[in-house]
Design brief:
Strand content: 15-25%
Number of strands: 22
Number of domains: 5
CATH class of the largest domain: Alpha Beta
Oligomer: single chain
Length: 636
């Protein structure tokens, strides 16, 4: 394999002269035909590990991702680089999907992005067998594991693709966060021919992880931002708080804005662009912000609210300091956060009968009769649904998530689909129509001048852009399009913004809807365990933050020396080397017997002043304790 070819592609399309750590290793593995699991931290350049080898190979690369917004963004970016790419997701009509697949079979497309719930459909499985596939890339691969924090049943069907494609086509699974258990699960569930994991260290030596126990978070945040340099992100858990915190910062004279998934796409794009360009210093956001961030010089990420898992925290805090320069990841924590998390646990797992209530109401709302609905896709407005049935919004959302975990349905993120147009007549027949219908001639010419590819596929169009070009109203543009569609000259699909519900099974009677109590309990216990690990991290005052995070992901490391815990140790005026040597001696002595402080100091064999500092630190952090006789013992 000539790596020079891949570097030339990297330089030609992305402008880089060399690959980042691990990218080259993953490419070598994939090109040699091996199924590969690549673990790369957030911002590590995962997409290049399949995009570069795909461009160097014959055929098309199939990319499976659950993030429809990211899918669209990558397709748009590739097409802007004149790399033909197309996306298929549940927001598209059956006709659009069929045309897209036909174009992939007979055209010269290099990338086909697909949402996981689409790959199990009979149409896709029939068509995929005809594709000249070079590679199957699975993004967010942790979603396949029930041990993971974001399990999606549709991912379990990916391995069945192997029944329809050549056995020579390798699978490349990619994720930014996975525990050792999840790593094994991913390879097993994807039917890897052999276990093959390539990973970089998750260690980020330039990030100082800090936890601050504060009740008055607003006061602390303002003071911190006045002292901190550069730009950053403040993560919160709700849209309401998102806006409130941003407005508070603006009142205090800090350049800030807010961002969440409920905002229109164009507004979100403007807010992100302003922050990326440095016009806005601080973006206050829910976890919706982060996907596709291309800003290396982020100096701080502050979590106003504690996340519900270390995976989420690590991914979100990992958006800081990608330029390798010193950066801070700060978590604000208070005892009231603990109570809130306990309450969120209750809402996260509604009673099984409540989940069944939501299922029945959903089927009635969407007018799905018993015995039908399988593979049907429905537009869905959660707020209208909960208002109509007077359900609590959060519990309803979590009930839908649980129905998804059980495999009965898929509940997608809100999709903003633009209007699409496809000419369904030949160019000759279109010309005859224009001659016979002069009133449509100039409008048809406008369409053909503004957009390309309309004869071969559905093309996104903007009624607003067409309105500005012509100076006529948007409503008039819409009427032109509707009229041309009624004459069977075009197929016109008006744009809309909607979440989707996809039924994986036909509607069942309530008594046939089985939600395993054992599975329910197991999922709850796993979530609770992740939550406890997150709280344990926040409350700990005696273990290096970086060591704790890396240990969670199965990686050993030395303490970082720059987190809040390590800084307290550093204040002892001892080197890390000296501190660790004395600590080991103390542990060795106290693991075998109890002794008083004076004897312990002598037994360490180190200068008294230094031994005293370490022993005092261990006492303060409950690593060692006194018994009733004032003898010290190691607190295991």
């Amino acid at each position: 394999m000539n790596l020079g070819t891949y570097r030339k592609i990297l330089t030609k399309y992305w402008g880089f002269n060399s690959f980042r750590p691990l990218q080259e290793d993953i490419i070598k593995s994939v090109v040699s035909g091996k199924d590969t699991l690549g673990l790369m931290p957030t911002g590590g350049g995962k997409s290049l590990t399949f995009q570069v080898p795909a461009l160097a190979s014959e055929g098309i690369c199939l990319v499976i991702t659950p993030l429809i917004a990211l899918m669209k963004e990558q397709v748009n970016r590739l097409n802007s680089m004149e790399i033909k790419s197309i996306a298929i997701h549940s927001g598209m009509s059956a006709e659009e999907i069929e045309i897209a697949l036909e174009n992939c079979i007979y055209g010269d497309y290099k990338f086909l992005y697909v949402s996981p719930e689409r790959i199990a459909t009979s149409m896709f499985q029939y068509k995929v067998a005809k594709l000249n596939l070079s590679l199957v890339a699975i993004d967010e691969a942790h979603c396949i594991s029930q041990w993971g924090y974001d399990f999606r049943p549709s991912y379990l069907k990916i391995a069945k693709l192997r029944d329809h494609i050549s056995p020579k086509v390798p699978f490349l699974a990619l994720t930014a966060t996975a525990t050792p258990h999840v790593i094994e699960d991913i390879m097993n569930k994807l039917s890897f021919k052999e276990h093959n994991v390539l990973r970089t260290s998750f260690e980020r030596k330039n990030i100082s992880y800090l936890v601050r126990n504060v009740e008055e978070k607003g006061t602390y945040l303002v003071k911190t931002l006045f002292k901190a340099k550069g730009s950053g992100i403040v993560y919160v858990r709700s849209r309401k708080r998102c806006r409130e915190v941003a407005e508070m910062l603006v009142k205090e004279g800090i350049s800030a804005d807010y961002y969440h998934a409920g905002l229109p796409d164009d507004i979100r794009d403007k807010k992100q662009a302003a922050w990326t360009a440095g016009d806005t210093r601080v973006i206050v956001s829910t976890n919706a912000f982060g996907m596709g961030i291309d800003k290396a010089e982020v100096r701080f990420v502050i979590h106003w609210d504690i996340p519900d898992s270390i995976e989420n925290y690590f991914q979100e805090s990992g958006r800081v300091g990608r330029d390798g320069k010193p950066a801070f990841a700060v978590m604000l924590f208070s005892q009231s956060d603990k109570s809130r998390l306990t309450e969120s646990m209750r809402k996260k797992f509604p009673p099984i009968e409540k989940i069944k209530d939501v299922y029945e109401a959903l089927c009635n709302y969407l007018m799905v009769p018993e015995g039908s609905g399988k593979d049907n896709v429905f537009d869905f407005n959660l707020y209208d649904f909960v208002a109509k049935y007077r359900f609590p919004a959060i519990e309803t959302f979590n009930s839908l998530q649980f129905l998804q975990r059980e495999g009965y349905m898929e509940f997608t993120e809100e999709i903003n689909n633009p209007s699409r147009v496809h000419f369904i007549v030949s160019r000759d027949d279109l010309y005859k129509f224009q001659v016979a219908n002069e009133s449509f001639d100039s409008f048809i010419k406008l369409l053909l001048r503004s957009y390309t590819g309309m004869f071969s596929e559905f093309v996104p169009v903007s009624e607003d852009v067409l309105s500005r070009k012509t100076g006529i109203s948007r409503d008039t543009i819409y009427k032109y399009l509707v009229k041309l569609s009624s004459y069977n000259i075009i197929k016109y699909i008006p744009g809309k913004k909607s979440a989707l519900v996809i039924f994986n099974e036909e509607r069942l009677m309530r008594k046939a809807l089985f939600i395993s109590p054992e599975n329910y309990l197991e999922v709850k216990e796993k979530y609770d365990a992740r939550l406890k690990k997150m709280i344990e991290y926040a409350e700990s005052e005696n273990r290096c933050r970086s060591v704790t995070l890396l240990d969670y992901f199965g990686e050993e490391s030395d303490r970082c020396g720059i987190c809040d815990v390590c800084r307290k140790r550093n204040e002892l005026d001892l080197s890390k080397y000296e501190f660790d040597l004395i600590l080991e001696e103390v542990k060795k002595v106290l693991s075998s017997r109890k002794v008083d402080a004076e004897e312990l100091i002598k037994l360490t064999g180190y200068p008294e002043d230094k031994a005293v500092k370490v022993i005092r630190w261990l006492l303060d952090h409950d690593k060692i304790r006194n018994d009733e006789e004032m003898k010290l013992f190691w607190q295991s």
